[in-house]
Amino acid sequence: MKVSTKGRYALRTMLDLAMHDRGALIPLKDISARQEITVKYLEQVMTLLSRAGYVRSVRGAGGGYRLSREPSEYTAGDILRVAEGSLAPVACLEDSVNQCPRASECPTLGFWEGLSDVVNQYVDSITLEDLVHRAGDSHNFSI
Predict the structure, then answer these.
(1) Helices and strands per DSSP (H, E), number in the chain
(2) Euclidean distance between the first and final Cα of the chain, in Å?
(3) Tens digits of per-residue pLDDT, 18-42?
(4) Distance between alpha carbon 37 and the CA centroid of its chain, in Å?
(5) How far apart are CA 31 and CA 95, in angstroms?
(6) Three-state secondary structure call for residue 57
(7) Are strands 55-58 and 64-67 parallel, antiparallel or unpaired?
(8) Which tens digit of pLDDT belongs to each residue from 54-100?
């Protein structure tokens, strides 16, 4: 499993919003400058996050973005799934019911299920608030 640029940027952007929340909207250009991500790419990421209800936005002068909920209410897994879709390591585990015709006889299925469980348990155990605490006072971070 490899997290794409979009997934990494979504997590970084949400963390940036959490770390810089002072009760006011945060302009996209400010996030762009801090994270060294182009505004054009951030617009794509914000569209995903906004459609998922993770961020609120206001257009125009004085506009910007802010989290819709408290940082403790988002997990890294939630954010990554918005950007990436399924985090399953193999295609046959992407659906709730395995559609693979070889599933009943596949000698590696248990391995892939175990890997999927470990990945999902980990990303779902880390909240955005946890990441804020890990970043500490440093506003320069990499994901």
Answers:
(1) 6, 2
(2) 16
(3) 999 998 999 999 999 999 999 999 9
(4) 15
(5) 35
(6) strand
(7) antiparallel
(8) 999 988 888 899 999 999 999 999 999 999 999 999 999 998 888 88
